[in-house]
User: Fold this.
Amino acid sequence: MPDTIQKGDTGPDVMLCQERLTIHGYPTAADGIFGSGTEQKVMQFQGANGLSVDGIVGPATWDALLAPPSEEVEPPQPLPAVLEHLKSLGHKVVWQGDYHLNLFGIRNPNAKANSFDDILGVAYTVNGMWRVHYWPGTTDPGTYWLENPMNVDGTAILVEGQYLDTWVIGLHGSYEALSQEAGVVQVYRDSNKDDILDLDPSTVQEGWFGINIHRSSTSGESTEVNKWSAGCQVHARIAGFDEMMCLAHKQVDVLGIDTFTFTLMDQWW
Assistant:
């Protein structure tokens, strides 16, 4: 059990308290300084949980803070536009505190394969405020694998939709990436071996297909998909991929949540 803390204290126990307040729906800057703002959030939390409202984090308050939230916590408002659109499609905004990642892809309507013309991105909060990153990438396979499918039913193309808690930090080949090890996805099967992406609902399959979220080249930026994707979601730039992986580790470190949600949407503008 962490030590009892109150206004004026500093250190890792204060930071833990601030992080847990945020997880329970009381966004608090995790700076390790127990100031008036943190005291106010502690008192709000205590009042909502039937505790003595004194602003002091003792054993009873720690027990409540360290327990899982009793119900889903509403994410901070206002939501960024991309998450508003995601919600309008009937999908869920995942949020159990700062650095809970809403990974997403936005598929370009261009049906000709082999360009990094889609968007990969993420939305998350820091101190309860939303941040959004957009990176160039592809949500489609490249020409090589369309013309040389590894599966007899055709090359996989991820179906638009939300896949909750489906990826973990794992390996793609020899390097660390987000690996589809925690859940199933749906894919179209494109079997006619040309460079046009066929999103035929009659071909949809569901299961584990190794649809990872990874990078293309080891440096700089790739301009053509080619062999980089056989259905995976692939970053065009190493910098964007590295940023995503850094945030993925941050989610695990801060929240202890080691699974990742990805939502694929069609371009809506």
Summary: The chain has two domains: 12-66, 81-266. The helical segments are 12-23, 36-48, 59-66, 81-88, 143-147, 238-255. The first strand starts at residue 102 and ends at 107. Residues 81-266 form one domain.
